Amino acid sequence: MQSWQTSDPEQLLKIANKIRISIVESLTEAGSGHLGGSLDLADIFSCLYFCILKNDPKNPGWSDRDRLVLSIGHVVPVLYATLAHAGYFPIEELNTLRKLNSRLQGHPARDRGLPGIELSAGSLGQGLSVGTGMALAGKSDHRTHRIFVILGDGELQEGSVWEAAMSAAHYHLDNLIAIVDRNGLQIDGRTENVMKLEPLMDKWRSFGWLVFSIDGHNPEQLLETVKMIQLEKNRPSVILANTCMGKGILRIEGDPHWHGKVPNKEESIEFIEELKNKFNQ
Amino acid sequence: MNTFRNKGDKPTKIGFGEGLVEAGNRNQKVVVLGADITSSVGVNFFAETFPTRFFSLGIAEQNCIGIAAGLSLEGKIPVFSTYGVFASLRAADQIRVSVCYNNLHVIIGGAHCGVSVGPDGATHQALEDIAIMRVLPNMTVLSPCDATQTKQATLAAIENCNGPVYLRFGREPMPDFTDSSSKFIIGKAHVLHPGNDLSIIATGHLVWEALQAAYFLETIGYSIRVINVHTIKPIDVKIIIQAARETGAIITAEEHQIYGGLGSAVSEVVTQFHPVPISFVGMNDKFGESGTPGELMEKFGMTTHNLIKSCKKMLARKKNGFK
């Protein structure tokens, strides 16, 4: 763990709250984007970048770093905000989100040269395959870094995710960890109404993965799970992180309308106020 | 200029397979991905020679492309091959986003291209792959004419490129006539036969047919230039403008749909820089069907005979000043 990282759950939640504030600010400034999913992943991203990942913001291309592939590209505001708070690039740059010539494209774009972006992505269902390829390369070169892939639950309706799941288990990729943002919602409503995903744990298990289901807003559970995964040999792991879309802002929590919406100026002030009051930030 | 002779029929996929082994010997980073049909697309030689650098991924083309992207991000040089229909269409979105948008050095081998794959019929005859691959930013599209050149193209795709490459080849034994000592430079087409009355600009299997047409027309007094465009993208603009300027008329020839393929690529150049009449020999907006390769080439109008007919028609129009 690096000096600026922490395993203190309270600290990680505080960082997550700062990330949430930046998400609201940058999306308000952008005028479009996906607020709900970005907010619900803030706790997980705080844990990943400020505790779990072996990384170095000052040397983002470090070859032994743990890689994070964001397969659900539309929640990239949480990745941008986290990277900025971790020191990969100046926080002020978050205000360029979705604007012309910005390094912060509406979906992650590697060619813009933003430090910390591992993959250009945005078309759902592709990230787990790419992560599997990265993990396969790591394994065949006897490297020790890990590959984390962040998936959405609606995204699991894409067949290619299961092609990837099959292949990662076939090649015993214990250096691959998938985290599913299981907020139960997608644009048309509840995932179980749009296209049933359950029994999700059984699905992953039957594909040969080690499966965990956790509270995605509880840092202790995530940290503990990743520790357990470290002991696992010969198979990839998936963490189904149960989250609440829009987490942190009471008015929008669990409301699928906020999947692809951003606040107006007044709402933004209100949301930021609510977040700031939580930790006196 | 040489008269080209057939050294013996050989499938272009064999050139691909041989190229992979040679590149694999020279560079440990070369890895190959298989989607079940390894021997059928010519990658079995690599798999047998370098078993630890061959990954079997089953019938899952979308995943194969994603995995290739991941391997490339980690410094490997992945080559994925399956039938051209599946390689270019089944995984088109993965190729667009995970490979091309990320500008990764992934080599996609499109096998069994054209109607010459024969009795399997329309589902397995890649006739749209050049169009689909050519439109993607960052993509290089190679379409060599025989086994010898396919081997050269394979080596060039692996050793002389940094971004994505689509390499097209076929299954049927076809005349192997180019010289392995001739230089293969991506983007640089070859004039295989000189001529000033008109130009046949051809790619893939139809280059041999174009030469036969030119040799025949020579016997009745016409001088036909034959250009082998082994790189569809980036296209050799210079050689095409020169052909337009010096011969005044062009026939394009490809085992592919006439919409979107070589003919379109040549037209894009000619209309911008030196407009001359062009006619297109290729698949005329149809699906293929079952039959022997010879029967299908004949039925769909992609033989030496068809080229001679097109040339004669064009020469007559030229004589009339294209009125």
What does this structure look like?
The complex is a heterodimer of chains A (281) and B (323). Chain A is an alpha/beta fold and 281 residues long. Chain A has one domain (9-279): 3-Layer(aba) Sandwich (Rossmann fold), CATH 3.40.50. Helices cover 41% and strands 12% of the residues of chain A. Chain A is built from ten helices and seven strands. Chain A has helices at 9-30, 35-40, 42-52, 76-86, 127-140, 159-170, 191-194, 200-206, 219-231, 265-279, and strands spanning 67-70, 147-152, 176-182, 185-186, 189-190, 210-215, 237-242. In chain A, the strands form two sheets. Chain A has a five-stranded parallel β-sheet, sandwiched between helices. Chain A has a two-stranded antiparallel sheet with strand order 4-5. In chain A, helix 6 (159-170) links the parallel strand 2 and strand 3 (176-182). The longest helix of chain A has 22 residues, at 9-30. The radius of gyration of chain A is 17 Å and the shape is globular. With 323 residues, chain B is α/β, with parallel strands linked by helices. Chain B folds into two domains: 9-175, Rossmann fold (3-Layer(aba) Sandwich), CATH 3.40.50.970; 190-316, Rossmann fold, CATH 3.40.50.920. Helices cover 41% and strands 20% of the residues of chain B. Chain B has 13 helices and 14 strands. In chain B, strands 3-2-4-5-7-6-12 form a seven-stranded mixed β-sheet, with helices on both faces. In chain B, strands 9-11-10-13-14 form a five-stranded mixed β-sheet, with helices on both faces. In chain B, strands 1-8 form a two-stranded antiparallel sheet. In chain B, helix 9 links the parallel strand 10 (198-202) and strand 11 (224-228). Chain B is globular, with a radius of gyration of 19 Å. Chain B starts with 8 loop residues before the first strand and ends with a helix. The relative contact order of chain B is 0.13. The model of chain B has no long low-confidence stretch (mean pLDDT 97). The A-B interface holds A 109-111, 118-123, 125-138, 140-141, 159-160, 163-164, 166-167, 170-171 and B 31, 52-53, 55, 57-58, 60, 62-63, 65-76, 78, 93-94, 96-98, 101-103.
